[in-house]
Amino acid sequence: MHETGGPEVLRPEEVPEPTPGPGQARVRIDAIGVNFIEVYQRRGLYKVPLPATPGGEAAGVVTEVAPDVEGLKPGDRVASVGFAGSYAAGAIAPAERLVKLPAGVSTRQAAAVMLQGMTAHYLVDTTYALKPGDTCLVHAAAGGVGLLLTQLAKRAGARVIGTVSTREKAEVAREAGVDEVVLYVEQDFEAEVKRLTGGRGVRVAYDSVGLTTFEKSLRSLAPRGMMALFGQSSGPVPPFDPQRLNQLGSLFLTRPKLQDYLLTREELLSRANDVLGAVADGALRVRIDREVPLARAAEAHQALEARATIGKVLLIP
């Protein structure tokens, strides 16, 4: 993209194949994960230097490594959320940000689960560590993160209340393990949460929607509950008076991002291997909504922005 704007600013171009520098590896890309962060960057909400090749998540096969790289060789199947422009047939990544894939995981599955799976993992495991008996609220429960977060929350022993926009998405959310599905176009999710919790509220709200759900999510929390705002698909939340947290029950508010939960290679491998291992043994099901040719990346963005997807969208070179 040479400018910010609508999906039409995404245009396929031929560029020279990148050469890995010190500590880097080049990967032939098999599948690319499409995420809302690229939509935010394309719109100009998140600033990136232009021109830019979007994307950080992908999986494929190593084709070249820098001389100083150890433990990685051409032919290794890898995935990462740290590629420098993954909307491409080949891309560079720091070798320390690449994760080798277990035998039971395809490159398509890996591209579909790395970013969203590790996001769900840190939210459930670290941001607010769910435990048996907790009740959580998951917005966009039939989305890519929502489906994975629900499965990990159930693994932790929690009760899940999930919001969705259609009856089709409600059925998909139930299949993933959501205990109580709220169709928010027909029901007031705040009132439903209070009803389903006997007026107590939930311990944590996992909110990737932002503008249209933020206030009611806060009011759905139990005293000392946590609001984990990890996205803004409906738009950014306006300036906020922290006194609201006091008034609503000494609440906690956090705005996490994945990079801060992958600060070391050890943390990256711990999260990635837990997620990929669960995919390999069937404990974590990955739903791929559609695969779109890379040259038609604009179509993938249009589908994501229209909330017309159930699960992950992949680009295929």
List the helices and strands and how they pair.
Blueprint: E1 24-33, H1 36-43, E2 58-65, E3 77-80, E4 90-94, E5 99-100, H2 107-127, E6 135-138, H3 144-155, E7 159-164, H4 167-176, E8 180-183, H5 189-196, E9 202-207, H6 214-219, E10 221-229, H7 243-247, E11 252-254, H8 265-280, E12 288-293, H9 297-305, E13 312-316
Parallel strand pairs: 6-7, 6-9, 7-8, 9-10, 10-11, 12-13
Antiparallel strand pairs: 1-2, 1-4, 1-13, 2-3, 3-5
Helix pairs in contact: 2-3, 2-8
Q: What can you see in these coordinates?
A:
With 317 residues, the chain is α/β, with parallel strands linked by helices. It contains nine helices and 13 strands. Strands 1, 2, 3, 4, 5, 12 and 13 form a seven-stranded mixed sheet that branches. It has a six-stranded parallel sheet with strand order 8-7-6-9-10-11, sandwiched between helices. Helix 4 links the parallel strand 7 and strand 8. Helix 2 packs across helix 8. It is globular and about 60 Å long. The model has no long low-confidence stretch (mean pLDDT 95).
Question: Residue share in helices?
Answer: 25-40%
Distance between the termini: 17 Å
> What is the number of E strands?
13
Unreliable stretches (pLDDT < 50, length at least 5) are none
- Domain unit count: 2
Biggest sheet layout: 7 strands, mixed
Radius of gyration: 20 Å
- Number of helical stretches of at least 4 residues: 9
Q: Which structural class do you get from the secondary structure elements?
A: alpha/beta
